[in-house]
# Entry
Amino acid sequence: MPGLLTGSGDSSSLVPFSPEPSTPAVYPLHHGLKPPITPRLSISWSSGNSLRVSVFRSPETASTIGEEGEVGGKVIELKLSGEDVDGEVTDAARWRKIVYGSVSPFAHLQNKKNAMAAFSELRSSAPYNVEWSKYVLEYSKDINSLLGNNKSNPSSLIEDPRTVLKNVEEPSSLKAAWELLEIFYANKQSQSWIPEQLVDWLTDYDSLLSGKMPTVHSRLVEFQAQLINTQTVENEAAYWQAISSALSVGWLDIVVKLLRLHGSYQLNQLGTRETENGLVEAVAVLISKMPRMRADLPDGKLGECCYNKSDFMKAWEKWRAQITKLDCSAYWLQCSHHQTKENLKNLLQIMLGNINILSNATCHWVELYIAHFLYIRPFTSGLESMYVLAQKCIQLKPTSSPHKLMSLIIGILGENTEVILAECSKSFGPWMITHATELLTAGNIQAEILLKEERHNLGGISIEESHRLVYAQVLSSHALTWQIAPIYLISCMKHGVGLLEILLYKQPVYHSQVLLKNIEICRLYELDSVSANAMKIAGVHNWKHGKKGSGIFWLQQAGDEVRLNRIAQNLFDFVGKSISDESFEQWEGLIELMGTESKGGLEFLHKYRDFKKSLQQVQEGVVTDAARKAGESLILIMKNPSTPQRFWLPLLYDSMKLLTWQGAPLLNVSQSNLLLNKLQELSVARLRPDFVEVGLPPHALSSVRAALATNLGRAILEEC
# Structure
């Protein structure tokens, strides 16, 4: 099955490939050598993703450098990033880990779906939606765990109070998109807490949007860089801008931490700036007590949880009343620091929902959208009203080059499944769309009809099956992932099994590991005919390439009696031509492997093998009993009607030691006459044109006849 090559913007390709020439990256070398230089370069790979560049001075230049100059040169390590600006998964090994890890959750969910469908048919009722939503959420969590985590890096025991943002693993747009789908489609039990889930989502992924436009995260990063050299932060406009931006999107812990960097908290100023310090602390306390309608709060996050709407409304009204009371307090007249007073009042206005200040504090429409949920419309529910609000925020904060995640958000809020599918396919490739359809159809009737309805323009298959087939095609085109493609093909009811058979036929079965995997897949999906054909192909290939034993083994496993009989006849013909040669030993194992069930005289070959073993013992000088047994074995073979005529003379010529035995004759009169009659028949048969001569000396027949005549005479004397 041929694979599909994805475009340059598709980070989900198993082997990254871009059909268009890309602009090469330019990395400047800061070697620090003083001119004049005519460098010689030596380039080699270093550890990780780095190049080691050694810059040597040429001998002519080095001779002109004074004693203070650098004579030798410099060695520089140049780190090549190779990372996408959007934080995509570009490493092929990491991507294959995601591909393999997602197989088990997908297969488990399909088994659950089939089991529930069968159970619902028996009960004549619809599937249990509550139970199914639990399975989908579990599936979503398993997939999400494969896409990385946003945990902070290990920090020291003593936290730096001037550190605003902690170092975390670089997030990916793929994980951000998956979590959006999980929030709106998979996590049915938390629908009333969607605004708070969006706050958490923006906390983790606001940095992804920094490459396209300014964000709250980028503002905090810039301020943190300035904070190192700042003594009185309250006099800096960037300080108050960072606080306002963080508060507008609900990052309360960062806001409180920044507020307590205020100069009025310093011990040497508590006596002169008590009112100012009190106002700062009052605002910090109000922020830390902000009501949050959510299930729980992670460690380190501020706010007070409310688990139902009525409790949240009461707490919200009480909290807003406290803000209004502080805003009208007379203590503001006693605050002598103008910047502190004005900016603290701005913070109160943000919490009171002043749209102008919120718009100035945020950078793009998603941040303003979340600010609406926090301070202006905290009781908003339903995707329709959320979509209308999103359109309003887009008008207030238009963007010239929106991030792809924003387009996905618009599609989700607008309940436009076609847009969601298009964005997932365009931005994240076939892996995403194949696995995301399970979330889109979880309890969404319209999406389920759209994705699972059979369409004539797709050859009678559904959109869901079409995307699975495309993803399976991508998997099957790579040597490291073809073996997981059957999981997705078998879930396609129309064409999956047929394409699976084609995939298995195209695998190179001459590799033993691939063949065993092929057979195992056939066993799992009951494709006995495909398995038998694969073993036949492997058997013929091994036989033709000199691996006779492996060839016979696989043909026997496949039950290919036609080819086994043909091989048996080849063995029979070969032994008939070279029965006196030592080369027969190389065929002995094959004769044993073939058994006696196949046709073509293999029964005779087994008897001949036993005769050769007994004859070998006689040649090695074993006692007369072994010679007598060898003689009896010879008579049995010659009397057996399955022994072909062309083997008679070679058998007797090999038995010359028995016919000329020095002791008592080993053959009696009747046995000697039997063998002489065989020779006479053979002499007559040699006159026929179709007789095939064997590779024996010309005098073989006369020598055997003389030996038999001598043995007959001795046998007559013995019996008299």
